[in-house]
Amino acid sequence: MKKALIASVSVGALLLPAAAMAQDDTVKLGILVALEGAFAEGGADGVRNVELAIQQAGGMAGGKKIETVVAPTDTTPDTTVRQARKLIEQDGVDIILGPLSGSEGIAMRDYAKTIPDKTVINGISGALETTWVDPAENFFRFNLDGAQWGAGLGTYVVKEKGWNRVATVAADYSFGYTNFLGFAVDFCRAGGEIVERFWVPLGSSDFGGVIAALPDDVDAIYLGVGGTDAINFLNQYNQAGAETNLIGGTIMADQTVLTSRGRAKDALIGTPTSGALAEDNPDPAWREYVAAYQEAFPEGERFPSPSLFGVGYYVAALAAIDALNEIDGDLSGGQAKFREALADDPLDTPLGPVSLNENRQATGTVFINEVQDDGQGGLKNVMVGKAENVNQTLGMTVEEFTAMGLPSRDTPDCAALASGG
């Protein structure tokens, strides 16, 4: 009787679909990434960098083979959630890496709450609210948010450049507000004055009206746009003959902009920016990563150096692989062990160690860069400073940061910050 039972179990196992048999030996990652819209080039670099991290891990994590499914988005929240749902319900992924853009991140925070047995590791989206307002317990962000990326830039332009009066042009959506807030907090506390604020829709093609309305009596213009929006702005700014000093938001002088065609981007020479990385960072971990990136992909199919978007997805993949290795690939029990491993220790990255706070939000380093001519007909970013251990409240108490209000067209209040309020 026992032999018969054993035989029947063995036959039953043989009859199981191959996918079911392989399931325990595989971990499936969904790459949720913008491959349409203003950040399509950056999104493609995000995919490349996930591939690089997996290649460096030998295609394995926690003793399991890594499989990937790419879900393309267009940066709109509706598309992002629809694609995320497909990853979970149809493709059967275990972990989602993404999304890329700010409003997508807020939407994914909310969607993550509907899939408590799965884990979402942010790609590179940077809206503050994603991890600050009612965060999801299964959403982790190993990149700094947009406000953190602005830390140090305002002080630099006031103290080192002597630019005290600025007008600002930024993208009229969650990340644009967040990145501007980080710059404005720093700038206003350093004694700077924001004369006028302009907001432009994400995906804009015509900036003529805004450029014509920019005031003349300012020391510089802060530009908080990126991707094709940044390229379009610079082309029209150049055509208008404008020559005011520029200050770049985090995505204004990324590789996606510096490697674009045409000479209009030369207007960025001398432009200071701040963000997650410095291309000439001497840290051995960064140099090794850049070399591995350059070796892994043919020169015509990658940027000269990893983009901000690529680095974000690389770090997200590193976090997933590191945690899976720590728990021997055990995703049972609603992935509780996996999430505990993600939150546990600082993650070693090419950007330096990254630790997470109680909101599962990164604390880390911000780099200050200036755009320079590379002497070979192109542009490069040169590191001129950095701010370390930048936390989510920008060094304020939680009460002070909360009292300032959420990022918006009108927040922060520069006058209140300048007076210490």
UniProtKB/TrEMBL annotation:
<feature type="domain" description="Leucine-binding protein">
    <location>
        <begin position="26"/>
        <end position="376"/>
    </location>
</feature>
<dbReference type="InterPro" id="IPR028081">
    <property type="entry name" value="Leu-bd"/>
</dbReference>
<dbReference type="Pfam" id="PF13458">
    <property type="entry name" value="Peripla_BP_6"/>
</dbReference>
<keyword id="KW-0813">Transport</keyword>
<dbReference type="InterPro" id="IPR051010">
    <property type="entry name" value="BCAA_transport"/>
</dbReference>
<dbReference type="InterPro" id="IPR028082">
    <property type="entry name" value="Peripla_BP_I"/>
</dbReference>
<protein>
    <submittedName>
        <fullName>ABC transporter substrate-binding protein</fullName>
    </submittedName>
</protein>
<keyword id="KW-0732">Signal</keyword>
<feature type="signal peptide">
    <location>
        <begin position="1"/>
        <end position="22"/>
    </location>
</feature>
<keyword id="KW-0029">Amino-acid transport</keyword>
<comment type="similarity">
    <text>Belongs to the leucine-binding protein family.</text>
</comment>
